Amino acid sequence: LSMMEWIEPPKRERKANYAVDAYFREALRVSEPKVPKAPRPPKQPNIQDFQFFPPRLFELLEKEILYYRKTIGYKVPRNPDLPNAAQVQKEEQKKIDESMPLNTEETEEKEKLLTQGFTNWNKRDFNQFIKANEKYGRDDIDNIAREVEGKSPEEVIEYSGL
Q1: What is the pLDDT of residue 3?
Q2: Is 10 among the domain residues?
Q3: Are 132 and 81 part of one and the same domain?
Q4: Same domain, 29 and 109
Q5: Which spans does this entry mark as compositional bias, Basic and acidic residues (predicted)?
Q6: Residue 110: which of 37, 41, 39, 156 has the closest Cα?
Q7: The domain that contains 86 carries what CATH number?
Q8: Is residue 7 included in any domain, yes or no?
């Protein structure tokens, strides 16, 4: 056969590479930027719901946060998602403007209340406790204590007493 009869194979077609990520990022982006979170004072204790701190502690921490925002001159931004945004903004700003620092009695009370929660319980312990309660029932403390790793039966009894 001669060279004239040879049929060349077609050139390899390349896949089109579209910038889909950029398109979807732009398409799914919310038109309004989110309202930035209000600043929190440094050295705030990390408190979780499952640690069962007294409600009074949350009041004192809120008071402390409001006063911190007052000291740094924080202004509450208007949230466009709320129907009565201006009123909510004024109320929140009023709380900040009228806030006072914790007095010595309140500071001592806060320190005392911080010792009353279950600070040695973490989310994993709590979830194990819940699963064991589902499995054995609320009254079978011995089996529940065996399921919760790293906690003595006394600790589990104290925790389940709440």
Answers
A1: 61
A2: no
A3: no
A4: yes
A5: 89-98
A6: 41
A7: 1.10.1040.30
A8: no
The pTM for the full model equals: 0.64
Number of H helices and E strands in the chain, helices first, is: 7, 0
- 55 burial (CB, 10 Å; 0-12 / 13-18 / 19+) is exposed
The token duo for 142 is 């011995």
| Same domain (yes/no): 34, 108 | yes
The answer as to whether 1 is a domain residue is: no
Say yes or no: 137 and 101 in one domain: no
Per-residue model confidence as pLDDT tens for the chain (162 residues) = 556 677 888 888 877 767 777 777 777 765 555 556 676 777 788 888 888 989 888 889 988 888 888 888 888 777 777 777 778 888 888 888 888 888 889 889 989 988 888 888 999 999 999 999 999 888 888 888 888 888 888 888 888 887
Put residue 158 in one of left, alpha, beta given phi > 0 → left and psi -120 to 50 → alpha: alpha
Dig out the tokens for 20 from the structure.
């889909």
- Residue reference for tokens 């398409």: 27
Question: Which domain range does residue 31 map to?
Answer: 19-114
- Segments in 20-152 forming alpha helices (H): 20-28, 55-71, 85-97, 104-114, 123-136, 141-147
* Whether residues 104 and 136 fall in one domain: no
